[in-house]
Amino acid sequence: MLFRSRKRAQDLLHGRNCSEPSHRPPVAIAHVGQILSSCYAIAIILSLYGVNSAYGAEGSIDTPPEHVSPERPHKALQVTPYIWAAGLDGDISPFRRGPTIGVDKSFSDVIDNLNLGGFVNIWGRYNRFVVSGDLMYVSTTDGHGAGPLPAFQLPNGALVPAGTTIDATVDTKQFTATAMGGYRVIDTPQFTLDALGGARFWHISNDVTLNIALGSGITENHDESFGWVDPVVGLRAFLPLTEKLSLQGQADIGGFGAGSDQTWSALATVNYVFADRLSASAGYKILDVNYDHDGHVYDTRLHGPVLGMTYRF
After folding, report:
1. Residue 302 to residue 112: CA distance in whole angstroms
2. DSSP category for residue 111
3. Which of 174, 206, 255, 270 is most buried, judged by most C-beta within 10 A?
4. Residue 305: cis peptide before it, omega within 30 degrees of 0
C-alpha cells in the first residue's frame, strides 16, 4: 500500500532525496455452511496484505543525481501487516460433492471462531519495475447442530435420508498467497500508475465431524483439502494530496477458467505519513472468487474495512 507525501513522492520520483525511502503505503447442510463461512471470513479478518495481495504498498530509495552516477538504481522495500474486518457472503460446500449452502456472515459473527491468523504484505521497487507479495493464513473452528435436513451424500458415499438431524464441527485452515510483478507506466510527481500481473494461490483444508441422529447414532469424520491457482492482472494508482496525506486505489481481475471461473479484488485507502519509516492507512477492500470444480464449491465475496501499518527499510 502506498504511504507517502506529495513532497517526498516528488523527490523520490525525480531522484532528489538520497536518504529517505518512499512513504507509501481479497455441511452438507445450511448450518455446516455457516460453520465454514466463519472459517473463511475470519481468514481474512486479521490480514497482512500490505494491505492486500496486489494491494501492496510502494516505495523507492533514491540518491541525488549530483552525488551518484546515473546508472545507480532507484530501489525500495517495505512490509505491511494489516487488519481486515471482513464479512462473508456467497455459496460454499463443506466437502466434496456436499450440498451447496448459502452463507451471510458479518465480521462480528465469525471473530469468535478464530484459532490463529497471520498476514503480511511485502512490496519492492527497482527503478520502474515493481513486485508485491502477500501471504494470509487462518485457522478456525466452529460447531453447530442442524436439522431436519434434506437428503445428502456423505464423503464415503453413504446417503443420509431427508429429515435427519446432525451436530457438525468443522476445523478449517486456509492459506492464500498473491504474487505480482509489474511496470510503472505513468511516473510523475502528481500521479503514478502501475500495470501488474501474476497469480493468486488458494489452499483450503477442512476436518469435518458429523454426529448423525440415525438409529443409535452415527459419527462420520472426513478430512480433505483442495486448492487452485488463478492468473490475475491489475492496475494500481497513487495520488498525493498534501505533504503527508495521499490516496491509493488498486484493482485486479483473474481466474479466466484456469483456476476459478473468476476472481477479482478492489482496494481504496487513505494514507498518512507520521514518521520517517512508518505510515498508516485505512480504507475498504473486496475479494471475490467463484470456484466450482470437481465437487468443490467456493463462490464467495469478502468485504470490509482495512487498517494497516507500513514499515520501510
Report:
1. 17
2. G
3. 206
4. no
**Dihedral Cα 271, 272, 277, 278, nearest 10 deg:** -90
Cell, residue 271? 494514507
Decide if 101 is inside a domain.
yes
| Residue 52 Ramachandran class (φ > 0 left, ψ -120 to 50 alpha, else beta) | left
Residue 151 included in any domain: no
Most confident range (mean pLDDT) of 11-15, 74-78, 105-109 is 74-78
Task: Enumerate residues 6+ apart whose C-beta is below 8 A from 216.
Answer: none
247 or 155: which leads in pLDDT: 247
- In angstroms, the Cα distances linking 179 to 18, 22, 134 are 29, 21, 7
Q: Are 18 and 64 in contact (CB under 8 A)?
A: yes
Residue 236 included in any domain = yes
Q: What is the pLDDT, as a whole number, of residue 214?
A: 66
Question: Which of 184, 105, 197 minimizes the C-alpha distance to 144?
Answer: 105
> What radius of gyration, in Å, describes the C-alpha atoms of the chain?
22
The percent of residues above 90 in pLDDT, for the chain, comes to: 30
Query: Got the DSSP string for 116-183?
Result: EEEEEEEEEEETTEEEEEEEEEEEEEEEEEEEEE--EE-TTSPEEPTTEEEEEEEEEEEEEEEEEEEE
Confidence at residue 145, expressed as pLDDT on a 0 to 100 scale: 64
Other CB atoms within 10 Å distance of the CB of residue 188: 11
Residue 286 has pLDDT above 60, yes or no: yes
For residue 196, give the amino acid letter. Answer: L
Question: Does residue 259 form part of some domain?
Answer: yes
**Structural domain count of the chain:** 1
Which range has the top average pLDDT, 143-152, 188-197, 295-304? 188-197
Domain that holds residue 252: 6-146+165-312
Q: What does pTM read for this prediction?
A: 0.73
Q: What is the pLDDT of residue 24?
A: 43
| CATH number reported for the structural domain that contains residue 24 in this entry | 2.40.128
Helix (H) or strand (E) holding 13: helix 6-14
Residue-wise pLDDT for 223-241, tens only, equals: 889 999 999 999 999 999 9
